[in-house]
Amino acid sequence: MSITHYTKEILDILDLHLTFSEDCFRKEKIAGEMSFVFYGKLTYQAQSCFHCGVEDPQHFVKWGFKTVRYLLNDVSEYKTYLKIKKQRFRCKICGKTFIAASSVADRYCSIARRVKLSIDEKLMEPFSMATIARMKHVSPTTVLRELRRFEKANVPQRIPYPKSFVLTNFNQ
């Protein structure tokens, strides 16, 4: 088995295009705190442009990399990050650039989906939002945002009452 396979297994990542090298792990001080940092690379051949929607891979040029840092769930009580060098692409049709998409986190978000799922699990237990935020190394606003998203997904839709209501008397 490869280093990539074991690292993905440890971090619970399913993305097929994400790879890790031999020296992918470091212990670093980030924001005054010792943290585990895993380094990976995400590259593949783009199938469609994020901006104009063209779907011909011949119209895309690999345009360097952008490093993105994601917050992951703790490993051995250490704050854990994943730094990914994501492939950038340039569309020959519209001239705009876009970045390879990953299943680790939502677009424009630096918090991994697994962290959000664990926040949802903690919200079902009797913890305050501030405590959950401290446990997951996020802000209380992020916990509140997850609570609202979780509520929307689990609250059944109400059936609206009809606008008109007619009573008839059949006992005549």
UniProtKB/TrEMBL annotation:
Superkingdom field: Bacteria
InterPro entries: Transpos_ISL3, Transposase_Znf
Signal peptide start and end residues: none
Pfam family, one: Zn_ribbon_ISL3
Positions of the Transposase IS204/IS1001/IS1096/IS1165 zinc-finger domain: 47-94
The name this protein goes by in its record: Transposase IS204/IS1001/IS1096/IS1165 zinc-finger domain-containing protein
Species in which this protein is naturally found: Tetragenococcus osmophilus
Lineage, top ranks: Bacteria, Bacillati, Bacillota, Bacilli, Lactobacillales
